[in-house]
Amino acid sequence: MTSAAVVTDATLSPRHQRFVEEYPKDLNATQAYIRAGYSPRGAGPSALALLRNPNIAAAINTALSERAERTGVSVDRVVAELAAMAFVHVGVIPRDKLRALELLGRHLGMFRPEVMIDNSVTVEGDVYWRRDPASDLSIIDHEPAPEGSA
């Protein structure tokens, strides 16, 4: 039994404890919820609620920290290994280097998708424009569309 289990036995139900044990396997809360013996129906929102429970969150953090200590795997180590592989020049297959650079770039947030926002406005009715030399076109008058027209 891990110290996470020892620390939380008094505050967590057996199913909650099982959820804490299952979550670190794949970091998928929904699947951990199901593997812990809960119904698949509504598993997503219910699993999220469990993650927000302070006692469960603390137990999961403890379990993840213990795993990092046992395995020697941490975010810093993974980033360092990816960087070493990405920037080495001798004996590295180019596609391996490309993949390492891709993973490193994603981790650093270099490849965020562009989001296009369309904030156009539709005005119904007659709109009168005038050209102001100091600015772009300006609305000088607006007559709303009559009721019932669209």
What does this structure look like?
The chain is mainly α. Among the domains are: 3-71, Orthogonal Bundle (Arc Repressor Mutant, subunit A), CATH 1.10.10.1400; 75-107. Helices cover 54% and strands 9% of the residues. Helix 2 packs across helix 5, helix 3 (29-35) packs across helix 4 and helix 6 runs antiparallel to helix 7. The protein has helices at 3-8, 14-26, 29-35, 43-52, 54-71, 75-87, 94-107, and strands at 125-130, 138-144. The protein has a two-stranded antiparallel ribbon with strand order 1-2.
From the 3D structure, determine the CATH topology of the domain at 3-71: Arc Repressor Mutant, subunit A
Biggest sheet strand order reads: 1-2
Radius of gyration: 28 Å
Overall CATH architecture of the domain at 3-71: Orthogonal Bundle
Mean pLDDT: 77
Unreliable residue stretches? 1-8
The CATH class of the domain at 3-71 turns out to be Mainly Alpha
Share of residues in helices: 40-55%
The fourth-level CATH homologous superfamily of the domain at 3-71 is: Terminase, small subunit, N-terminal DNA-binding domain, HTH motif
The number of helical segments is 7
Organism: marine sediment metagenome
Pfam family, one: Terminase_2
GO biological process, one term: chromosome organization
Protein name: Terminase small subunit
